[in-house]
């Protein structure tokens, strides 16, 4: 009887965990401006039972030097373009770079996966503000477009399809 109770509790916890990752989310949801950031996007389900075939992440202004991580079995492409501003990247002015990262493959609805890139969060970004990464899951017959950005003062949890958000913080002084 005890084993049955433990298994029931574990199954219930697994169901709760599944519903908790229903949106496209970032694993690490806070980072310092001016730092390098490893963005790990979590995809917890497909589109109404269908497998995810493509994941597209839009890179917001002020996120530069984007380097996506290849995934075994998935195609990887980047879409580049001009930035709205010029950024200083280790003494070099950069005015264009990756604007979108696209992974193409197949992720069954019953499975979970992560999509990763590394980037520099420019020091000109404003601390204590959210930076949003609109993310679209493309499936065979429909998409999950996690692209809604809350208005100032609005809670992202009030949106149906919130874009993954990153809270920017003030850089800490590091003693060497």
Structural features, described:
The chain has 176 residues and is mostly beta strands. It has one helix at residues 2-20, and strands at residues 25-26, 30-32, 36-43, 52-58, 63-68, 75-89, 92-107, 113-121, 130-132, 135-139, 143-146, 165-169. Residues 1-21 have low confidence and may be disordered.
Overall 3D shape: globular
How would you characterize the largest beta sheet?
Answer: 5 strands, antiparallel
Question: What is the number of E strands?
Answer: 12
* Strand order in space, largest sheet: 6-7-4-10-11
In angstroms, what is the radius of gyration?
18 Å
Report the structural category. mainly beta
Distance between the termini: 58 Å
SS summary, helix count: 1
Integer average pLDDT: 88
Structure at a glance:
By secondary structure, this protein is mainly β. It has one helix and twelve strands, in the order H-E-E-E-E-E-E-E-E-E-E-E-E. The protein has one helix spanning 2-20; strands spanning 25-26, 30-32, 36-43, 52-58, 63-68, 75-89, 92-107, 113-121, 130-132, 135-139, 143-146, 165-169.
Keywords:
176 residues, disordered N terminus
Chain-wise SSE layout:
Blueprint: H1 2-20, E1 25-26, E2 30-32, E3 36-43, E4 52-58, E5 63-68, E6 75-89, E7 92-107, E8 113-121, E9 130-132, E10 135-139, E11 143-146, E12 165-169
Parallel strand pairs: 2-12
Antiparallel strand pairs: 1-3, 3-8, 4-7, 4-10, 5-8, 6-7, 9-12, 10-11
């Amino acid at each position: 009887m005890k084993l049955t109770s433990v298994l029931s509790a574990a199954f219930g916890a697994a169901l709760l965990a599944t519903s908790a990752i229903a949106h496209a989310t970032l694993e690490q949801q806070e980072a310092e401006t001016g730092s390098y950031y490893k963005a790990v996007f979590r995809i917890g389900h497909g589109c109404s039972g269908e497998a995810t075939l493509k994941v597209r992440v839009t890179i917001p202004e002020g996120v530069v030097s984007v380097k996506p991580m290849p995934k075994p079995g998935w195609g990887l492409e980047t879409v580049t373009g001009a930035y709205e501003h010029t950024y200083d990247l280790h003494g070099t002015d950069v005015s264009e770079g990756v604007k979108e990262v696209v992974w193409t493959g197949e992720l069954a609805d019953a499975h979970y996966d992560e999509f990763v890139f590394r980037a520099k969060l420019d020091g000109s970004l404003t601390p204590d503000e959210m930076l949003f990464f609109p993310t679209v899951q493309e499936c065979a017959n429909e998409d999950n477009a996690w692209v809604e950005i809350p208005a100032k003062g609005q809670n992202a949890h009030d949106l149906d399809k919130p874009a993954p958000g990153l809270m920017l913080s003030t850089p800490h002084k590091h003693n060497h």
